[in-house]
Amino acid sequence: MSNKVLKFNIQKKLKEFDLNISFELKKGCLGILGPSGCGKSMTLKSIAGIVDPDNGFVSLTTDKETVYFDSNNKINIKPQKRNVGYLFQNYALFPNMTVEENVAAGLAKDHDEKIVSEMIERFHLGGLENRYPRQLSGGQQQRVALARILAYGPDVILFDEPFSAMDAYLKEQLRVELVNLLTNFDGLSILVTHDRDEAFQFCDELLILDEGQIIAKGDTRELFENPKKVQVARLTGCKNISKIEIIDDYHLKSLDWGIILEVSKKISPNITHIGIRAHDFVAAKKDDVNSFDTLNSKKLEMPFEWRISLSNGLSWIREKRIHDHDFEIPDYLKVDPKNIILLEE
To answer: Which pTM was predicted?
Structure first.
């Protein structure tokens, strides 16, 4: 079990906003989720030493603490001296080196040849040793980049949106491979993404960034189940968000959908919005709790789901099988009071 600790507390003035981030990572994979341009990649580059923060402190503790950056004491270790692996979006393979040479690129000149052989085998690169990056598929290139990182035994691996340029089929294959890699990796890892599915799949803990600030952090599943804030709910994929008017402790009016709803938790005065996940509606009778009609709804068929747009503005997603093409929208839908998420602005 890893006993490594990464401490990170930096500030950097950027063109659009000030980046101000602090966290401590002690185990597993940390996800950094947020929209494009919110400071995610800049955070990784500050850990790796590719970018210098204006102020702050970055250190990694293994058997002892190694300070990577300390603005007060003018410490700034070069990227090559930090035991950090960085998987770039484009993999950054050397185009004039073979697969074998790329895997060995981060090792000392007198390295043990067994290390390269083990990585070639581990990442299923046998038979490709003498090919150049241009002769490889996107998936093969990613495996070479990961083999190169793992070959020199990093304490931390940084993933910068590793699946962003891939088609859906390849993305699914490589997600499975990366889950297996992280399960067997006795170190720390950080995944930067704007894809909520990736964040949920890979990350034990999650930071949610917006304009250079952490707006939420904690256990990944807990943040998805109880996002607490409007922007966090949006970034975790909640499609239905409405302003509200509080009626009493357990009832409110949705100002966007025009319906009165009952909730399972007492509504505190700081609650300004509610969220409902698009999968959380079910067929109902007229007099059921939180029931509303579906008049003038529109449906769109996808391979594995129906997407229904209701006339009041709500979105409903209903799963289907590939060969099912007939679906009648029920006259009424409802949502369980416990599935209504109470949100602050």
So the answer is: 0.86
